[in-house]
Write a structure and sequence with these properties.
The chain is of the alpha/beta class. The chain folds into two domains: 183 residues, 3-Layer(aba) Sandwich (D-Maltodextrin-Binding Protein, domain 2); 97 residues, D-Maltodextrin-Binding Protein, domain 2. The chain is 42% helix and 18% strand. It is built from eleven helices and ten strands. Strands 1, 2, 3, 4, 5, 6, 7, 8, 9 and 10 form a ten-stranded mixed sheet that branches. The radius of gyration is 20 Å and the shape is globular. The two termini are 38 Å apart.
Length: 315
């Protein structure tokens, strides 16, 4: 989280910046359907942005091709600050998944801010005789295990692929069309395991319909403090979750970037924001555009290795 002094410097830079845009409506392109995580997030901060910019802020759900349609549209947009992209970390993983790559994640966009992040948790149905990630790995060596995901290349799929690589085990992937049927088949005991957002797993675990084994953060999740991390289970390389950035077209003026970054950092500092994000299983991050650029670069390197080693493709 950025410090108050840091936010003050960002705000000063933004106020000193020339007004080179925002002379009309601002469009937040969400490259997925309404109700998805990034859509919910965009609708949370859009009113704040509209108030601070004193111009309409509209949300454009431009879904299709695993998010690539809306993402490519922003990559080709005028860098005047009137078109921004609200994305998820699939923005990075889509690059090695598709051949040819749909865009250049490092140079094809202007990083603005890393808004939020959240953890994934490894779950099984209660009949699986494993209470931890290491026990599940050992069980997989004695019997075939199937895991579900909302689709090929989703963070849930890649989390399990990384776990399998780090544990040096074989797991059979069963992709579904969306989270709901995948979760339903897990609790219906038609698959053995699945990675899912902690907020999805918590109520089901409380009802005894699934068991949570390990979370993918660098520290234990605040909403599930009894569940160890993968690192605690002996798999420090399994850091898995989801994160949501805001990006612009390539070539945006630094003054515009500073202005948007300052406005959104201020929103993240609002007391109500953390509570509303927590309800969605997210934690505020914030910081500089450079912080987001580093996350994109690091994740691209890491997930390219995982995807190629597992021979995963979007086709």
């Amino acid at each position: 989280m950025p410090t108050r002094r840091h936010l003050g410097l960002l705000a000063a830079a933004a106020l000193a910046a020339p007004a080179t845009a925002q002379e009309g409506p601002i469009t937040l392109v969400v490259p997925f359907t309404p109700g998805t995580g990034m859509d919910i997030l965009a609708r949370l901060f859009a009113p704040w942005m509209q108030q601070k910019l004193e111009h309409p802020v509209v949300i454009d759900n431009r879904a299709g091709a695993s998010g690539n349609i809306g993402t490519q549209a922003v990559g080709r947009a005028n860098p005047d600050g009137r078109t921004l992209l609200v994305q998820a970390n699939t923005f990075v993983t889509n690059v090695p998944l598709f051949t040819p790559a749909p865009y250049d994640a490092l140079r094809g966009f202007t990083p603005i801010i890393l808004l939020t992040e959240g953890d994934l948790v490894l779950c099984t149905h209660p009949d699986v005789p494993a209470t931890g990630a290491r026990e599940l790995a050992e069980l997989s060596k004695r019997q075939p295990l199937d895991y579900a995901s909302p689709g090929i290349g989703t963070p849930q799929h890649l989390a399990m692929a990384l776990f399998a690589q780090e544990a040096r085990i074989d797991l059979n992937h069963i992709p579904y069309r969306g989270s709901a049927p995948a979760v339903q088949d897990l609790i219906g005991k038609r698959v053995h395991a699945m990675a899912m957002p902690v907020t999805t797993a918590l109520p089901l675990a409380a009802e005894g319909r699934l068991r949570m084994l390990a979370t993918g953060g660098t520290r234990r999740t605040a909403s599930a403090p009894a569940i160890p991390t993968f690192a605690e289970a002996g798999y420090p390389g399994v850091q898995v979750g989801f994160w949501y950035p805001v990006l612009g077209p390539p070539g945006m003026a630094p003054a515009l970037v500073a202005r948007f970054n300052s406005i959104l950092n201020a929103w993240l500092q609002e007391p109500e924001t953390a509570a509303r994000l927590r309800q969605q299983g997210m934690s505020p991050v914030g910081g500089t555009p450079a912080l987001l650029a580093d996350r994109i670069r690091d994740d691209l390197t890491r997930w390219t290795r995982v995807i190629r080693e597992a021979k995963i493709t979007a086709e």
